[in-house]
Amino acid sequence: MTLFLPRLCDAISLLRFENPAERSPGHGSVVLVTITARSVRNTELMRIQNIDERHIQPQYIVMLPTPSTSHVNYDHIYEPAEDSYLLLDTLASSTETKFLEDRFAPATASPLVLEVGTGSGVVLAFVTAHAEIIFGRSDITTIGTDVNFFACEATAETVRVAVTEQARAGKIPGHFVDCINSDLTTALRHGSVDVLIFNPPYVPTEALPEARSNQEALDGSALQAAFERDSHLLALSYAGGAEGMETTDRLLDQLPDVLSKRGVAYVLLCKQNRPEAVLKRVREGPGGWNAKVVGTSGQKAGWERLCILRIWRP
Amino acid sequence: MKLLTLNFLTCARKSCKSSPAAFPLHPKDAELEQVETEMNAVFLRNILPRLEWEAMRSITTELGLPNLPAETPASEDLVEKDGNGDGDGKDDEAAAGPSQIARDLHALLMETCIASGKLVCGNCGHEYAVKEGIANFLLPSHMV
């Protein structure tokens, strides 16, 4: 479980509380606390101490503010959840920032970062706003794609707000260009993407939602039609078909084409996606690609277990 | 959508991907708008090697915008030569302001946006609509 607390002091008081589980919604241990403190210095690292280990495992916490998505309509756009936040935490982790800084050294050409399926835009906004910390350079270009037109609109706004906030704080954010209404990476030029981020529809379902052209999706004017449209758009954001892998498999197949020579991809998987099999497949496939689990959450029984794979060219 | 985005896009059809004619896409009936953004000298310098210069040149010509220079500018062309630097080019960037070329490039790539119109593939002729600044690259299933 990840708790999201609006202010740093809330987090501290929670952590110091004798029995934190009593104050957390539901039952169970808190394994990770993400602080969305908007007023805290970004680079500050702190180690939470004096914690009852039965309830909270101490972790390093990078206090990068989570982008605001208060303007997003969750009737037809995927609401940021544990999976989204795992991506934020992983990309801001010291191992990944080190990897990315080394791979995209400051004097080299501006890396292009693509997020596929941006939804609310919370991940892309985070990466864009905190480029300096994640990549060690702010001169990165970011772009998004989503099959949902509303998500494209929302993403542009989420990024705009996050970037404006960074600039107001005197920091230099990265450079977002656009969110394209498209299927996976199909609109991108081959070999153009340096960093690809994907939080896929990973839930195993009997079938994938049927493909519909955008016009059909947008034409619904009556209440019933709008409801069906919204359900369809939400289904697209989570339903993954067989083993939850139908869409992810298509994305994995596109990686060798769309990624540049220094390309790297971060792909989120859940346990039912059989991450070990995916790792094996990527490593044993043509081209000698590397793959490694670089982030996990929800290791306790009964919880949704997620992991993030980093896949990169040798 | 920003003009810089066109540097990274092609036709979405599989059969067009290997065709040189599918890049760049050609703007048609484009309504442009200018959206001001902060200029960043380091970004401009490091995006230069990523630009498909010929493609960006043809797009600006098709949009009726002032022509880009024939060759990709060198990174030293982005700083004002008459700045306060000592001329050895080392510490000039901080002292000297951005050159006219840098300002033009910034205005073109990062501030000039297609608010609405179409993007046409030079290979198959398919037209992708741009509405409210968002390009729609979804294809009907028979065209994927």
TrEMBL record, chain A:
Keywords: Methyltransferase, S-adenosyl-L-methionine, Transferase. Signal peptide: none annotated. One of its GO terms (biological process) is methylation. It is an enzyme of class 2 (transferase). Its EC number is 2.1.1.297. GO terms for molecular function: peptide chain release factor N(5)-glutamine methyltransferase activity. Belongs to the eukaryotic/archaeal PrmC-related family. This is S-adenosylmethionine-dependent methyltransferase.
From TrEMBL, chain B:
Residues 78-88 have a biased composition (Basic and acidic residues). It comes from the Eukaryota. Pfam families: Trm112p. Gene3D superfamilies: 2.20.25.10. Residues 62-97 are annotated as: Disordered. InterPro entries: Trm112, Trm112-like. Belongs to the TRM112 family. This is Multifunctional methyltransferase subunit trm112. It comes from Rachicladosporium monterosium.
